[in-house]
Amino acid sequence: MKLRSLLFVPADSDRKFARADTCGADALILDLEDSVAPGRKAFAREAVKNLLGAATRNWRFLVRINPLGTGLTLEDLVAVVRPGLDGILIPKVNGIQDVELISHYVDVLEVAVGIPAGHVKLLVLATETPAAMFGFAGYVTPSSSPSSRLVAMTWGAEDLSAALGALTNKEPNGDWTFPYQVARAQCVFAANAAGVLALETLYGDYKDQAGLAESCRIARRDGFVGRLAIHPDQVAIINACFTPSDADLAHARRVVAAFASQPDVGTVGIDGKMYDRPHLVAAKRALASVGETIDE
Prior knowledge:
This protein has ten helices and ten strands. The protein is α/β, with parallel strands linked by helices.
């Protein structure tokens, strides 16, 4: 599942959906949680149901449900697990046990509505509670490995900041303070260890395109492969950043070809520089991100 850009859209806003529909995002996240007032939850569910039955689209249809413990989760799932849904974003997870519970609910609902088993994927907001910070090992421990539905992990600072009672989560220069640097790092480590996509959190100032581009550059440098967005104007920058350039792809092909021509060596030389097996892994990942098949 290619997920460079994932744009949040309030599920109860036809106007915002109309603009988001054509913005070029890889996925739209129809939000039933934070952006929908309590009195509008039922209306938002019906809106999502209607959209799911609409014409074909060129983006992935995801829904952020309300978290476990709110009394709203099952109502959300019953409303949205139906043909047309590609995935569910689970907020405020405390650990793998929450992911497994949602997965079991989806197992039953897929059968009930005639969706092929396993079609609906799961994405998790993995750092929104203090308890979640102690549960990352569960995503990679064989005895409690996540459902095969799990395809991506992302992180967030605002809910965690509120739960901690922190006065701020940013330094004066805009950098994350230390607790949130830890949360971000834990997310990218756990996602890669679990073999799922690591997605960077949102960039709040949607008018600051230069700042967004630099933040995306840093995210890609650190191992994230996509990013959440809160405004359609952010999508093009995010897509460009998380798409390898022609030069990147050409170099990756040369690295793969060099190792293929010398399968028994641990390092190869290209243009006077040495490359070892980790560079081969990175090259294959870059090519796979654009759908290129690599013959082993």
